[in-house]
Write a structure and sequence with these properties.
- This protein has a single domain, classed as Metallo-beta-lactamase, Chain A (4-Layer Sandwich), CATH 3.60.15.
- It contains seven helices and 15 strands.
- With 264 residues, it is an alpha/beta fold.
- It has a seven-stranded mixed beta sheet with strand order 1-2-3-4-5-8-9. Strands 10-11-12-13-14-15 form a six-stranded mixed beta sheet, with no helix packed on it.
- The protein is 23% helix and 28% strand.
- The longest helix has 14 residues.
- Bound molecules: zinc ion (ZN).
- Zinc ion (ZN) binds next to loops.
Length: 264
């Protein structure tokens, strides 16, 4: 796939894996109607397996500046022993996808983790060491707090190794990362969920993270998803951003098509 460009930023899709999700999709989108499912399945037939299960892609995106500096958004499901191994189709193939795109892991200067679910942080730390050794890793403070309150295994698997090498940057709210690239706080899926906006005038692309996880939320942004930590906050930010981004492009981790252009 040819990379997209917004201004002088190149957006490279990197697929780490694909596979069925364990959840019953009718249960996790409990409010969706039969008509809404029919429309979503027409829009994204690749997300429905013949046996009725939900097929997910697991993607990361690299944002490349003209000087070769690279921002990586999310790190996928990870290697065979990653925290997502209990449910996701590990091992992922992000290292091969990076190599195919001509991106050395040393080129990655910033890793934005949209949130701390295991299918988005997989290659962040491998063998107890940060995989991207020259990168700052950006997480929202509210997600760090949520991990601490839950006494999550990710404190040891993810945060401690990043803190140990001084590579963890805990941020709050929106922040510019490079000319035309910035973090947008999109809380709801998790308390500290964040997305990344690339903009050049009216030309805009949002790397969504899990602002939406299925095409049914693209067609019906008001639909909540059971694994959102705050469904009403998630709904509000999804409805608002999809309206503001009309005519722009979404780069999504989980839909069958990596890039979706919103109607103007
Ligand atoms: Zn996800």
């Amino acid at each position: 796939m040819d990379p997209l460009r917004i201004g002088d930023i190149e957006i490279v899709m990197l697929e780490d894996g694909a596979g069925p999700f364990f959840a019953d999709r009718k249960e996790v989108f409990a409010a969706a109607t039969a008509e809404q499912w029919a429309a979503a399945d027409t829009y994204d037939p690749g997300a429905l397996l013949p046996d009725g299960r939900w097929q997910l892609r697991f993607r990361c995106f690299a944002l490349r500046q003209p000087n070769g500096r690279t921002i990586l958004v999310d790190t996928g499901i990870g290697p065979a022993d990653a925290p997502a191994a209990s449910w996701a189709p590990v091992p992922g193939r992000l290292p091969a996808a990076l190599a195919e795109a001509g991106i050395a892991r040393e080129d990655v200067e910033i890793v934005v983790l949209t949130h701390v679910h295991t299918d988005h942080i997989g290659w962040s730390v491998t063998g107890g060491r940060p995989y991207f050794r020259n990168a700052r890793y950006l997480l929202q403070a509210a997600d760090v707090t949520a991990l601490e309150e839950a006494r999550s295994a990710l404190l040891d698997r993810l945060l401690e190794p990043l803190r140990g090498t001084g590579q963890l940057d805990v941020v709050t709210g929106d922040r510019g990362l490079a000319p035309g690239v910035g973090i947008v706080a999109t809380p709801g899926h998790t308390p500290g969920h964040q997305s990344v906006l690339v903009a050049d005038g009216d030309d805009r692309l949002l790397v969504t993270g899990d602002l939406l996880v299925h095409a049914i939320q693209l067609l019906h942004p008001e639909l909540g998803y059971a694994h959102e930590s705050d469904q009403s906050a998630a709904r509000a930010v999804r409805v608002r951003l999809l309206r503001e981004l009309r005519g722009g492009i979404l780069a999504t981790p989980h839909l069958t098509e990596a890039f979706v252009r919103l109607a103007g």
